[in-house]
Amino acid sequence: MCFRYSAQPGAQDRSYLLRVNAPLKVDGVRVFLIGHGYAPVFKVTDGTGHVVFDQPVPFVPVEQNGLTSVALVCEDLAQNDSVADLIRSVGPTLVFTPLLDGPQLASRWAARYASVFADDPGSAVLTLTSYGMVQRCRPHDYPASTVIALWKNPGGGIREIPLESDAEGVILTACVDRAIRRSADGRLPIRSGISLFDVSVHQVRASTAGSGSRPSWARTPAEPELDTRDLAILTSWAEAVAETALYAPERVQTTLAEAGRDAGWRSELGIPEPSPQLSEAIYAMGQLVETITAEGGVETLEALLDGYPHGTTGEEEHTRLGSRVLLSALKARETRRRM
Q1: CA 165, 166, 169, 175 torsion: positive or negative?
Q2: pLDDT digit string (tens) for 118-170?
Q3: Which residues face 179 on adjacent strands?
Q4: pTM (2 decimals)?
Q5: What is the rounded CA–CA span in Å between residue 87 and residue 121?
Q6: What is the DSSP string of 281-330?
């Protein structure tokens, strides 16, 4: 830490770089740097070799008992080659990983990679996903899961953490104990670290008594135009159209035709036709593509993004939804291509 100081009032200012084990000496008093953070530079690449993160990461002390907080954005816990080396070089007490994933079950991939970090470097691992993502994951003939988080600590088992049906959230309380820190450079072990060995789960429920009269602006939300199943199908077709526009623009119209009603492949596979609301949303995507390329242009990613109309008021909700889902997929491809 670099700063300026004066040895006495009115004296000339001086610059000093305060470092660990290099105290500032002023009039017989030594000023040490303690409880400091640090910011190592981390570089993370994805499975294809692209750099997704390359910058300093601040490690900030939270308490005097050795707890330090750090935030690191990575692409995917499963593609953990470079991330695992990074985590092992730091040896954190807790690895907290928010995910855009389905239910955090002990039988799924997140538990396997949580066990990897629990074994080496010996970190407690907490994975967390959103309740909406959990509810959208519905395997055939299986009920929707409620498990939103997963806990794994060194030497312990895996614990699934659900969000109960009448709860609004979950509070986790971790048990903390002193841990022995060991070094390979000849220094004696010292009991100055901390370890997390268990969590208690508290379901948060809204009060039945309420907090007073209902605000005048509050109202019952309208039923969604598309259910979770139809929304997942619509999103998948929007992704397919965007992917086709990026790599095979001459086949965009073919992809849209396969998405619409009366496509032959559904009857061959015994798949029911899309609902009327979903059909209209898919049709809106096709109409949007035709409008943008009405003058005979090719449905490339650039053409669709440049020609996308803004201000779609007055349309049905599911029609606007189809257009917005397609725009989101197109922008995601454009961002990925620029990386």
Answers
A1: negative
A2: 888 788 889 899 998 888 887 777 788 899 999 988 877 789 999 998 899 99
A3: 193
A4: 0.50
A5: 8
A6: HHHHHHHHHHHHTTTS----HHHHHHT-----TTS-HHHHHHHHHHHHHH
